[in-house]
Amino acid sequence: MRNATRENAVHPALIFWIAAGWVGFCLLPWYGVEDGFFTFEWLLDGYPFDEDYAPAAFLIGQGEKLWLAPLLLPLVASLFALGRVKSDPVYARILVMTGAVGFGWLMAQGFGIGIRGFSFEWLKALFGDLGDRQFGMGYGALVVASSFLFLFTQGIAARGAINGDVFVVSAIGGVIVIVTTFVFFPIAKMLVAAFITEEGGYSASVFVSKFFDDRLWGIGCLSGGRCGAAWNSFFLALIVGFVTTALGLVFALVVTRSGFRYKRLLRALTVLPIITPPFVIGLALILLFGLSGSVTQFFAELFGIQPTRWLYGMPGVLIAQTLAFTPIAFLVLIGVVEGVSPSMEEAAQTLRAGRWETFRTVSLPLMRPGLANAFLLGFIESMADFGNPLVLGGNFDVLSTEIFFAIVGAQYDQGRAAVLAMVLLFFTLSAFYAQRMWLGKKNYTTVSGKGDAGVHPLMPRGLAIPVFIAAAVWGLFTIVVYCMILYGSVVELWGVNNTLTFKHYVTAFSVRIEETGIRWNGAAWDSFWTTIKISAAAAPLTAIVGLVTAYLLTRQTFAGKNAFEFGTMLSFAIPGTVIGVSYILAFNVPPIEITGTGIILIVSFIFRNMPVGVRAGIASMSQLDKSLDESSLTLGANSWQTFRAIILPLLRPAILAALVYSFVRAMTAISAVIFLVSAEYDMATSYIIGRVENNDYGLAIAYSTTLIVVMLSAVGILQLLVGRTKIGRRTQFGVGE
Amino acid sequence: MKRINLIAFSSLIAIAASATAASADKLTLYCSAQEDWCQLMARSFEDATGIDVNMTRKSSGETFAQVKAESSNPKGDVWWGGTGDPHLQAAEENLTESYMSPMRDQLHDWAISQAEGADNKTIGIYSGALGYGYNTDLLAANNLPEPSCWRDLLKPEYKGHVQMANPNSSGTAYTTLASMVQLFGEEEGFEFMKGLHSNINQYTKSGSAPIKAAGRGENTIGIVFMHDAVKQAVSGFPVKVVAPCEGTGYEIGSMSIISGARNMDEAKKFYDWALSADAQNLALQVNAFQVPSNRGAETSPSAPDMSTIKLIDYDFKTYGSSDERKRLLQRWDEDVSTLPQ
After folding, report:
1. For B214-270, what is each residue's pLDDT tens digit?
2. I need a surface site. Which of A57, B205, B211, B236 has the fewest CB within 10 A?
3. Interface test with A, best of B7, B262, B263, B326 (most A CBs within 10 A)
4. pLDDT class of B97 with cuts at 50, 70, 90
5. Name one Pfam family in it (chain B) (predicted).
6. Which residues of B, range 129-188, sit inside 8 Å of A by Cβ?
7. Residues B169, A390: C-beta atoms closer than 8 Å
8. In chain A, what are the domains?
9. Cβ contact (<8 Å) for A680 and B54?
């Protein structure tokens, strides 16, 4: 029945993309408009004949940029697919051919011809000097490229791939193209640098000499000396991974499986560190535990001992990272712990298992995907963290700071940075595979379409007591740290002059009402508004890309799925500093020319934070029984409708996690941002670091405190907007939550 | 789903709102001095000429990395401020443009010689001498004598009390290394660094970090540029500044026009303006205690008096070249940093 209705020759998606291709070619400006992607002055300024703003068709018509002319061929050819039925082999062949040829030629000309004519020597040798040049792609090129891409995926679907599912094939194609463009391409450009000699040639021996460096692999710390940065990073990340996962689980258990009354407070408390701009936790720790810190001084006087610099080095970094990354583990685990179906636990209890036995043999194993994901995130975050080791690292060198200083330090050694980045990447990817091995191919689904009404059992008492103690101690510690931060923002000069004052807030955020309106004359407003706009733009895009990817990974099987998963996780495993520099290298020149714009910031946030959306999505989706999708498909919905109406609503915790995470990360990230900010688009974090460098601790902390408040309210608003999943269970105490 | 659409839609609005209108004359300034100084320079130049300034502040190392990465398609016009070595390096790699300013006859000789050493692709705008500062409270609490020379820092009682930056990551620390080599001769200079090594409690990453740590009471003695130490003292931290008795090296803060600048005329206007006495007097408003390169510009009473400091004849051309730099850093890595502390 279903097939019969589909066997007509009208394909809305096909018509749409063919039309888009023609519009992009004939109507939209082909090259990037220099005034900015979203300015529309070009409409009044010589369009469509001015060379800067002309669509491709007008350029060719005027006899310019003739290398664009071959694109007409696939555009015309695609028209022949109209009017044919999907099952016609010619239909598929036309679309595959036009898509591949069009997209291929677009790429070839983009990379082949740059701002200095031909980009490669051999092209010059073959065709002589071009005598012309081109700039970065603009709207027109972008739309035409998308058109070719989706014509291609429709062709592939028509040939029967993934049961002919156009949505799934197009989603896979789209994700592959953007991940290739914004992850693989820049990283490849950066890593090639590892093999470049000082003279500009290529050589493997350069790589070898930089790789087998004692500063990287030394094991002196076993005999009282210093260890290489690689080992330091690795062991630190292992410990941080374990500790944050354990603490995250503790908080998740307290929130979901105990009679604890102030759950909301606890939730807010665990979220605080994730929304704290970099450096601030480090500064607060120094004020508490540093050589002249208040806690250190107190104990030194109490016991009459000499204060030491114990904080600087591994202990300090470990404390700061644990504070900072426990919330990430918590966010991942809360969804999973909530998602474990009570029916299973009730079944175990019916079979006379005690609370402890139920927890150990049923609940905990079902949380495995969450635990593994939380550990992986903690491990990778620690590896890539840059702010905390910078402030508290002392002589404890880690890879991420070494990379930064290899690039910006006195040596300017991009090759060394690339080699270090490779080592870092090796560690994070190994962790990724270890995690997959541990999870294995077991089934963790507990939310199914079948009746699921039960109550989570409380924690066994033997577990509850240590869990409460751990949560209380850590909670108290967090509160103390944040009181220090708040205090730091309202004193004259932190640690020296403790007169209370609001002057830092006034300097940063003063507002004057004038006749012409409100004048934002505080020093921080510029970077503040930029940050809000960029973060607000990046968050939903990140969530969308992340969840679609998660859906493809958990719900669809296709060739090369493992490579696909690897690709989408890759950007997360690469420290921001490397992303920053590689983005400058890759996107400063045509065909994609976006440095110095807000777009490059948004793009970098999307691909830096997407893996969290993917992981959260995968963790939640692997708990949703496939029979839900199947029943939807059986009832005649297509995969897009199923995704939208069945999966998405059940994924609210994951959506929220992805949105919140990407929003706050965009506001607090620093390592990639520091390379990508420009005069027009300065971000809050880079501004704050400037203040810290300049001794304006008060202003820096006042700004950070304001950001924390802003993000807290944003998280609250997002929570309201997205809403909570209602899995339809009874609650523990008979009252609704 | 409607909510998701709403969010996606509002994000589009946000993107659209972040676009800005273009305007007539503009200049993109890469600034490697402190933030408020950079802001003040940018705004004052706007007031003086009506040219819109887009300013980005980054450390000189970061700016160098960016200028180099952008070399095939430059986005910046002028690079103002920051220690001279990255500017010389940029000149060496043809990332910057040579320019003869009409303001040159008003400048100190050291500013001109910086330009002549680099084919006129860079010029001195301020200078600052190397030295160290100490936290007076901590020094008293630990019953330590007041140091006044470089060699004082080698005394065993200062063990664990001295901090400097790692010369591999910081231009300040490289200047220290190169100064010691020039002051004491290469062999003795390295002996000095070895002796210092056993007293060092931490090699920081960033150049001014040691004196900031001293200001906060996290460290006793920090080897830094003196103007950074003065700034700590003026901010209210218990820091005393020392000009070492043996003499010392110095940096020349520099300015360069980026090769292939999109707004070349405006860049030259800024260049000339930044060398004027009026523009250099702005430093006083933001507690920048470097010595200005214009002979007519004022110096702060809090600034270290350069005439009382014994300055060595620092050879910027030799010690700023990448070969010599690599050689010295490698020797430091092998001979000094691997020693037990």
Report:
1. 988 889 999 999 988 998 888 888 999 999 999 999 989 999 999 988 889 999 999
2. B236
3. B7
4. very high
5. SBP_bac_6
6. 138, 160, 166-171, 173-174
7. no
8. 10-159 (no CATH), 228-496 (1.10.3720.10), 507-722 (1.10.3720.10)
9. yes
When the pLDDT of each residue in chain B is averaged and rounded to a whole number, the result is 85
Contact A410 B208 (CB under 8 A): no
Q: Is B72 on the interface with A (CB under 8 A)?
A: yes
Residue A235, both tokens: 């062991």
pLDDT score recorded for residue A255 = 81
Q: Between helices A166-179 and A525-555, what is the axis angle to 10°?
A: 130
Give the C-alpha separation, A577 to B325, whole Å.
24
State pLDDT tens for residues A118-143: 777 777 777 777 767 677 788 888 88
In the beta sheet, which residues pair with residue B55?
B29
**Considering only CB atoms, which chain B residues are within 8 Å of A675?**
62, 65-66
Query: At a CB cut-off of 8 Å and minimum separation 6, what does B303 contact?
Result: B227, B230, B289, B290, B291
Residues of A in contact with B69 (CB under 8 A): 581, 584-585, 588
Chain A residues touching B166 at Cβ < 8 A: 405, 409
Chain B's closest residue to A682, CA to CA, is B56
For A671, nearest residue in chain B (alpha carbons): B62
The DSSP code sequence of B238-265 is -EEEE--TT-B-EEEEEEEEETT-TTHH
Among A179-193, A222-236, A671-685, B97-111, the least confident range: A671-685
Interface touch A405/B168, C-beta < 8 Å: yes
Q: Which residue has the tokens 């199923």?
A: A642
Helix/strand/coil (H/E/C) assignment for every residue in B60-112: HHHHHHHHHHCCCCCCCCEEECCCHHHHHHHHHCCCEECCCCHHHHHECHHHH
Of B80, B99, B91, nearest to B32 (Cα)? B80
Q: Which residues pair with B130 in a beta bridge?
A: B225
* Cα separation, A96 vs A86, whole angstroms: 13
Q: Which residues of B touch A539 (CB under 8 A)?
A: 7, 11
> Which residues are registered as beta bridge partners of B203?
B164
Tell me the pLDDT tens digit for each residue of A550-562: 888 888 888 888 8
A491-528 residues labelled b (16+ CB within 10 A) or e (exposed)? bebbbbeeeeeeebbebbbeeeeeeeeeeeebbbeebb
Torsion of CA A422, A428, A431, A433, to 10 degrees: -70
- Residue owning tokens 């291709």: A21
Which residue in A has a C-alpha nearest to residue B163's C-alpha?
Answer: A394
Find residues 234-293 of chain B whose CB sits inside 8 Å of chain A. 235-238
Instruction: Please state, rounded to an integer, the average pLDDT across all residues of chain A.
Output: 80
| Residue A325 identity | F
Distance in Å from the first CA to the final CA of chain A: 45
Which residues does chain B have within 8 Å of residue A410's beta carbon, measured at their own beta carbons? 61, 85, 167-171, 173-174, 325, 329
- Reported ipTM: the value is 0.73
Element (H, E) at A83: none
Tell me if A312 and B57 make a contact (CB, 8 A cut-off).
Answer: no
CA–CA distance, B86 with B72 (Å, rounded to integer): 18
Q: For chain B, what percent of residues have pLDDT higher than 70? A: 93
Tokens standing for A593? 């020319």
R_g of chain B computed on alpha carbons: 22
Instruction: List the domains of chain B with CATH numbers.
Output: 26-127+252-303 (3.40.190.10), 129-250+321-336 (3.40.190.10)
User: In chain A, what residues touch B214 (CB-CB under 8 Å)?
Assistant: none
Looking at the complex, report in whole angstroms how far the Cα of residue A465 sits from the nearest Cα belonging to chain B: 38
d(CA A244, CA A250): 10
Q: What is the pLDDT of residue A694?
A: 66
